[in-house]
């Protein structure tokens, strides 16, 4: 098998979120995919097969079926690894059509590109405010004050300022005990909103840039700011930059990618 490593949501090497991309002719077994993701030890390893594959099982209209694995578990949606997959198809594997439709466990994902920005059409997951959230959340996140807590797939924790996001000192052991994947977010100084994402319960302490988290962040901030087109940054150590749009029950997020490595897997 061939493996491509791509830095997504960035225009420079060693930034953004690295993804391992493994194109397949047909699906291999789940245990092997999980072991490969564990061995790669990146936030996500992504696999895709042509929709015409006998074992694809795809929905009509899809070009490829796609699945994502963290080092610890399969997940139902991943933005940066989808962006990296599209980059590999467009720029390395010779895919010529103007758009790619991936079939996934979260439904169809439509990918387009304009020059060097690749845009993804994802589901919009508007989080709802909750009052019953894990005790000691402030201590787990290493923060002083919570503005509000919301949830769809992940907990979304609103803070007061960009500085609060930067200065958060998460205790990953405490976060793991909650069993939750957690987004922290606040208004940005030079962009519309900023965030960080923690998921030690699935083997990712802090994810550099998280497309799936923006399926919640975009509708949240679109309603709060009264805007449909926004600019966002994820304030991890590597950092990430996204251009995002709220479009009804879908969201669009765009970013750039940088190629890092091609390798060969021997099993």
Account of the protein in words:
The protein is an alpha+beta fold and 267 residues long. The chain folds into two domains: 2-123 and 254-264, Diaminopimelate Epimerase, Chain A, domain 1 (Roll); 128-248, Diaminopimelate Epimerase, Chain A, domain 1, CATH 3.10.310.10. Helix content is 21%, strand content 39%. The protein is built from six helices and 18 strands. The protein has helices spanning 30-40, 79-91, 137-141, 162-167, 172-178, 211-225, and strands at residues 2-8, 17-23, 44-50, 64-69, 74-75, 99-104, 107-114, 117-123, 128-129, 148-151, 155-158, 182-187, 193-199, 204-207, 229-234, 240-247, 250-255, 257-264. It has an 18-stranded mixed β-sheet that branches. Strand 12 and strand 13 form a beta hairpin. The mean pLDDT is 95.
């Amino acid at each position: 098998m061939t493996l491509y490593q791509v830095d997504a949501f960035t225009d420079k090497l060693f930034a953004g979120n690295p993804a391992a991309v493994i194109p397949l002719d047909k699906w291999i077994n789940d245990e092997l995919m999980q072991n490969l993701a564990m061995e790669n030890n990146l936030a996500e390893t992504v696999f895709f097969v042509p929709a015409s594959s006998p074992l694809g099982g795809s929905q009509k209209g899809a070009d490829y079926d796609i699945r994502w694995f963290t080092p610890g578990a399969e997940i139902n949606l991943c933005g940066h690894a989808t962006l990296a997959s599209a980059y590999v198809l467009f720029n390395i594997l010779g895919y010529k059509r103007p758009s790619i439709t991936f079939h996934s466990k979260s439904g169809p994902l439509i990918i387009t590109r304009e020059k060097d920005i690749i845009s993804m059409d994802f589901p919009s997951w508007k989080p709802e405010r909750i009052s019953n959230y894990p005790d000691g959340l402030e201590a787990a996140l290493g923060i002083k004050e919570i503005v509000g807590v919301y949830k769809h797939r992940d907990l979304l924790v609103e803070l007061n300022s960009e500085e609060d996001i930067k200065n958060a000192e998460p205790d990953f052991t405490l976060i793991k005990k909650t069993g939750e994947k957690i987004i922290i977010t606040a208004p940005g100084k030079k962009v519309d909103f900023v965030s960080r994402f923690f998921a030690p319960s699935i083997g990712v302490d802090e994810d550099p840039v998280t497309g799936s988290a923006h399926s919640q962040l975009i509708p949240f901030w679109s309603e709060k700011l009264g805007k449909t087109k926004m600019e966002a940054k994820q304030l991890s150590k590597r950092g990430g930059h996204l251009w995002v749009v709220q479009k009804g029950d879908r969201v669009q997020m765009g970013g750039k990618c940088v190629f890092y490595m091609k390798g060969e897997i021997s099993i």
